């Protein structure tokens, strides 16, 4: 225990005046936001003062009876996680006698949270100054401090998705485990983040798809992954059954684990392997087909169209499209499916139910989802 605990000055006022005093101190720049307020008596409260606060002017500035109290201070963690992260790194640097120049200004402004795992963006610790820190013999203590400041137990760096068949994650773990299990919008996901990707940025689309009423429907998820859309369709959409096509063994493990955790494994069939092959066994079984691959799922458009029942259905087509070409792409996609229907001998009319703009994928390029309806012609 510190033999000389830090002390602070407090402006003590009646609790009934607390609101106006808090505002006045904050406006004046005299409120020490990193120190907890104190209860002095049941009906009095003490507000912590900055060094700039002038004792002789306190009562005049606050406009209420005020007395000064000097006592031990209880520091509070900043609410802003960016400030907590900066404080954690600063403290570690100070402890090891290292300069902050070139380090603090390159701390990430955003990160991805998967349960107790925080993934920093690619390049977060790749500057020359950071590379020097990473060679420090006590760097593990830094990773622990950074994770703690972000209220996590594991820490990693998210690198670009591998350009392989599995679209594998290339996470570099700094601390803890890549195995995650977390709740998102009432759904439990579980997987190994070092082996598979999870698109947290698609949360609005996952919720939109889960919000559709699929009661009694048989659905195909052509690119199931760990269940980004499969699980919302089962848990919230109430789909009768989902056929999930997936080629990555690690994703399949996560999908099956999560299906059990959510109690929907009896309504799920996983088709392992290349969907160009597995979709061939699903012709004419689906009321709905989800095509969630970016930048394009076009290689299986024909197979997913053939998978719809003779009574027709809906296709959810994901694509990355330049903003100025959205209308042309929408019309071209409808024409393409109409042509595929004719090739397959399907007497149907293809129309657009909805175009969802999910997010910006790159400058001027949007991730969109086109809901295409296929209706039989009598």
N/C terminus separation: 83 Å
Stretches with pLDDT under 50, minimum 5 residues: none
How many domains comprise the coordinates? 3
Shape: elongated
Structural class: alpha/beta
- Spell the H/E element sequence: EHEEHEHEEHHEEEEHEHEHEHEHEHEE
CATH class of the largest domain: Alpha Beta
Q: Please give the number of β-strands.
A: 17
The fourth-level CATH homologous superfamily of the largest domain is Vaccinia Virus protein VP39
Strand content: 25-35%
Major beta-sheet overview: 7 strands, mixed
**Number of alpha- plus pi-helical segments:** 11
Strand order of the largest sheet: 13-12-11-14-15-17-16
Write the layout of secondary structure elements.
Elements: E1 7-14, H1 18-28, E2 38-41, E3 44-48, H2 58-62, E4 67-72, H3 81-95, E5 112-114, E6 117-120, H4 128-134, H5 139-149, E7 154-157, E8 172-175, E9 179-184, E10 187-192, H6 203-210, E11 218-221, H7 230-235, E12 241-246, H8 249-261, E13 268-272, H9 275-278, E14 288-291, H10 301-307, E15 313-322, H11 326-343, E16 348-362, E17 365-376
Parallel strand pairs: 6-7, 11-12, 11-14, 12-13, 14-15
Antiparallel strand pairs: 1-3, 1-4, 2-3, 5-6, 7-8, 9-10, 15-17, 16-17
């Amino acid at each position: 225990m510190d033999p000389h605990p830090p002390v602070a000055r407090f402006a003590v006022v009646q609790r009934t005046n607390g609101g106006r005093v808090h505002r006045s101190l904050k406006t004046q720049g005299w409120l020490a936001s990193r120190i907890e307020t104190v209860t002095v008596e049941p009906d009095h409260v003490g507000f912590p003062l900055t060094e700039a606060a002038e004792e002789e002017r306190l009562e005049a500035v606050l406009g209420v009876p005020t007395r000064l109290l000097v006592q031990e201070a209880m520091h509070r963690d900043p609410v802003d996680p960016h400030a907590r992260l900066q404080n954690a790194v600063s403290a570690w640097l100070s402890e090891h006698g290292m300069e902050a120049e070139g380090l603090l200004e390159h701390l990430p402004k955003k990160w991805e949270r998967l349960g107790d795992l925080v993934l920093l963006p690619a390049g977060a610790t790749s500057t020359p100054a950071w590379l020097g820190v990473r060679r420090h013999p006590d760097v593990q203590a830094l990773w622990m401090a950074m994770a703690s400041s972000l209220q996590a137990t594991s820490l990693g760096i998210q690198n670009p998705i591998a350009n392989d068949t599995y679209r594998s994650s290339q996470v570099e773990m700094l601390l803890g485990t890549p195995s995650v299990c977390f709740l998102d919008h009432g759904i439990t996901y579980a997987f190994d983040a070092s082996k598979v990707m999870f698109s947290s940025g698609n949360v609005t689309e996952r919720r939109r798809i889960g919000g559709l009423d699929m009661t009694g429907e048989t659905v195909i998820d052509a690119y199931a992954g760990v269940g980004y859309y499969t699980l919302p369709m089962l848990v919230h959409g109430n789909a009768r059954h989902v056929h999930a096509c997936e080629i990555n063994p690690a994703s399949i493990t996560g999908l099956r684990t999560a299906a059990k955790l959510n109690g929907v494994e009896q309504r799920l069939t996983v088709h392992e392997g290349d969907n160009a092959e597995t979709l061939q066994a699903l012709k004419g079984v689906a009321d709905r087909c989800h095509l969630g691959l970016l930048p394009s799922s076009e290689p299986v458009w024909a197979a997913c169209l053939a998978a719809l029942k003779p009574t027709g259905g809906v296709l959810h087509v994901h694509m990355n499209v330049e903003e100025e070409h959205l209308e042309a792409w929408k019309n071209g996609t409808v024409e393409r499916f109409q042509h595929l229907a004719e090739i397959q001998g399907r007497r149907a009319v293809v129309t657009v139910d909805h175009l969802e703009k999910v997010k910006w994928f790159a400058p001027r390029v949007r991730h969109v989802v086109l809901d295409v309806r296929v209706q039989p012609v009598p």
